[in-house]
Amino acid sequence: MGNLQIPHKFREGVLAKEHCNICGLMEGNEIHMRDQPAEYDVPQPPFVPMKDAHVTPTTRFSTHPWKAAGIGLDCKVCGLSAVDAIHHFPGAVIPVNEPEDPPVLHFNPARIQEGIRLVLEGLGVDPSDHNFNDTPARVAKCYAELFTPQATGWSVFDEDYTDQVVIREHVFYTLCPHHLLPVKITAAVGYIPNGKVIGASKLIRMIHEVNRYPMTQERITAEIVKSIKKLTQGTSRGEAVLLLGEHDCFRMRGTRSNGSMVTDKFSGEFDTPEKRRQFFDLVKL
User: Most exposed: 84, 122, 152, 249, by fewest CB within 10 Å?
Assistant: First the structure.
């Protein structure tokens, strides 16, 4: 690794609310001194650009230290791997925030079938073989089943109930956005109502509504919390989501680990230790 000194470059805008084009941290961080260069520990070439790299804008470090020497390890500041170090250089544009809402997608089974035929050809098999002849249509139908939620009305009832409401051990499936391999997720979802409760089945349907295209487990977790707030019309006093994911992208390839990934998000009254403890006692995933 070599050290490179480069000045921070900020996007035009209001002080302390804009992000550095180099590392993605906010201008208000004390490490960002406009008239002085900042030192970064970066690996030697080759560099692999990551156009969709995500950098957390709240981390406070003066350098980008790697967890250990060598290419391919993670940066302690932004979490990107060392081979993605292109984001440390001037001119790199880094999206530092997720969009406010997921994009509106238009499911296109015909394009999916075209793509699957190309994949089969790329694998060296004959798409007209009887084993593969209907595969493109089957895959398109499978994706439609996974990512086309059933239309439903969102039943919300007036109810004088102010304790936790929790759905636990609900299993659903999705695809990871990086390898399009299956992910099995066991979910526990809860909220604390304040005058309005969500129909039990609708709480489950809401999870499937969120799972409408391949996305990271972290994003699913955050989107479920946002959806609970919308369903309760902003009246809920707290929201809690705990997801346990079994990812084939690292079970059947790469590290070939049997481990599971756990994500959680708490808001409102669930940010208190007592309410979190009650939630974990109820779900016991």
Answer: 122
Top-confidence residue, 19 or 71: 19
Summary mean pLDDT of the chain = 74
Could you give the CA distance from residue 35 to residue 279 in angstroms, rounded to a whole number? Answer: 49
pLDDT of residue 36: 41
Q: Is 141 helix (H, G, I), strand (E, B) or coil?
A: helix
pTM over 0.70: no
Instruction: Check the CA dihedral 48-51-53-55 and report its sign.
Output: positive
Which run of H or of E encompasses 182? strand 182-192
Say if residue 272's pLDDT is above 50: yes
Largest CA distance in the chain: 67
At 256, which amino acid appears? R
Distance CA 20, CA 36 (A): 14
- Are 140 and 113 a contacting pair, CB within 8 Å? yes
Same domain, 222 and 163: yes
| β-bridge partners, 188 | 242
Q: What is the pLDDT of residues 196-246, one digit of tens each?
A: 899 888 889 999 989 989 999 999 999 999 999 988 888 999 999 999 999
Q: Does 3 share its domain with 91? A: yes
Give the CA count within 13 Å in the CB-facing half-sphere of 103.
7
| Whether residues 163 and 277 fall in one domain | yes
Q: Distance between CA 277 and CA 117 in Å, rounded? A: 50
Q: For residue 39, what pLDDT band results from cuts at 50, 70 and 90?
A: very low
Which of 97, 131, 166 terminates a domain? The answer is 97
Q: Could you tell me the CA-to-CA distances from 33 to 5, 10, 27, 36, 139 in Å, in that order?
A: 13, 11, 9, 6, 52
Within this chain, do residues 218 and 247 fall inside the same structural domain, yes or no? yes
